[in-house]
Write a structure and sequence with these properties.
This protein has 68 residues and is mainly β. It is built from 1 helix and 3 strands; from the N terminus they run βαββ. A hairpin with a 5-residue loop joins β2 and β3. The protein starts with 6 loop residues before the first strand and ends in a 12-residue tail after the last strand. The mean pLDDT is 95.
Length: 68
């Protein structure tokens, strides 16, 4: 049984696709993509997970639920 993150911080920013990203995403080089970096943390605050994702901006749907 592994460790489970209890929270995460996700950064989303626009980047221009390099040659490899463009080929994998079936787009032209230098077309805007979204770079999503997420860091997951344990309950003691230690970072335990790091992910980098690159998404086509025309396929990405960002939804956030905000509560008070």
């Amino acid at each position: 049984r592994g460790v489970m993150p209890v929270r995460a911080i996700q950064h989303i920013r626009a980047v221009n696709a390099n040659e490899e990203q463009a080929m994998l995403a079936n787009i032209q080089p230098n077309v805007a993509m979204l770079h999503i970096m997420r860091i997951g943390y344990l309950d003691n605050g230690a970072p335990v997970e790091l992910t980098h994702s690159y998404c086509r901006s025309d396929y990405y749907d960002f939804v956030a639920e905000l509560r008070r």
